Amino acid sequence: MKISQIADPPTASTRRRGCLAISVIIALCLAATIDLLVVVANRNPIWPPLLVLSVGLAVLLWPHDARPPWLTTSLRTIAPALSSAVYTLGVLASGTPTAFGPAEPLILIFLLVVAIRHCRPATAAVAAFVIGASTIALPLRAGIGNSGDSGLAYSGAAILAVLVGGGAALGGYLRSLDHRRKDSIAHTRRTERLSIAADLHDFVAHHVTGILVQAQMARALAITDPDRLDPVLESIEHAAGEALGAMRRTVGILRTSGTDQPAAGNLAAIGELVSGFAASRCVHATLHRGPNVPDTLPPEVQAAAYRVVQEALTNVGRHAPDATETTIDLRCDDNHLQVTVRNNGTIRPTWPTSARTGHYGLIGLSERVNALGGHFHAGPQPTEGWRLTARLPTNGTAIRRPAE
Questions:
Q1: I want to staple 396 with a disulfide (CB 3.0 to 4.6 A). Which of 31, 209, 372, 391 is the partner?
Q2: Residue 151 lies in a domain
Q3: Confidence class of residue 350 from pLDDT cuts 50, 70 and 90?
Q4: Does residue 237 lie within any of the structural domains?
């Protein structure tokens, strides 16, 4: 079946940017027309300003997607300024006053903003000097050879110097915004990758713990009851496949570089998780879900509840293999979802060195629950066993893991 992709309709901000770009293009073209009319009215040669304006408008308005590789930002900004400077030097050398209009200084100031915003620091400094000098020197064309117009030329140069300073300040401000935006994006991606890594730990640790328990059982059955090995080996194979699938999904998410991935795990999947735990470890596990626990809780809250149960069951397999009873309670009260996992185990096994961890699962759970505005506690019960409790607000917001 072929699925056609429908493009999203343009947003209001996109339409505003498009209208602004069209308005700027129209304004520059009108200003360029005024420049040429001024030159013709003063009976100056038309081809030099026409060439300078054509170069400036071409590099400034050239569509980004259609630019050839050789048309770099440095070339786009410096070349029109050099052409303007050469034109000014030619006028000064000829000694013939030449009029100019508003388009040329506007184009140069636009290019100054582009250079400072996008060029490398050293190139931006060179481009700023060349463009600024070319812009400030424009009034000298009209004041040459006429002492009466010299004061007006100097006044025009001073005004253009102020505009050049404003353009440089605007370019620097936009450059700082771009830098902060890049830092923010990098921080967000790092935070999301840490979150995905924590999710991978939760999934894989759960399945690998099952593999370890089943492998120990298989070693015992190989001596006492070899006929019962096949179901145990089948469980190991299934757990290994689930772990590999979790890693594959995680790598796929990392390769897509997406930050809007749906939260994994929900309340409906907790039942299957508990039944799978009970079947693989041959213990009695009971899930009690209160009648007032809805299926419409926020995805982040459901995912956090799923992770709490998953990590708790994983820890039962790791640290309490003698547990015969595990109880999971889900209930809602006072706009909170409370998840409680209890077990009656007491023995802490000796795991292989490669299987020991630094309790990152509980740390990750505490961070996840706290990020939702909830409370998390894990510790021994007064009589025997272990109890893990998480209290989550049912109006939880998107999880934000702290940077590590």
A1: 372
A2: no
A3: very low
A4: yes
What is the per-residue pLDDT for 114? Answer: 93
Average pLDDT value for residue range 390-404: 60
CB-based contact 111:76 (threshold 8 Å): yes
Per-residue confidence at 262, pLDDT binned at 50, 70, 90?
very low
Burial of residue 379 (CB within 10 Å: 0-12, 13-18, 19+) is: exposed
160 located within any domain: no
**What's the total number of domains in the chain?**
2
252 and 190 in a common domain: yes
Q: Which of 89, 8, 100, 82 is nearest to 45 (CA)?
A: 100
Number of Cβ within a 10 Å radius of residue 384: 12
258 to 167, 188, 192, 250, 404: CA distances (angstroms): 36, 11, 9, 11, 20
Confidence (pTM): 0.54
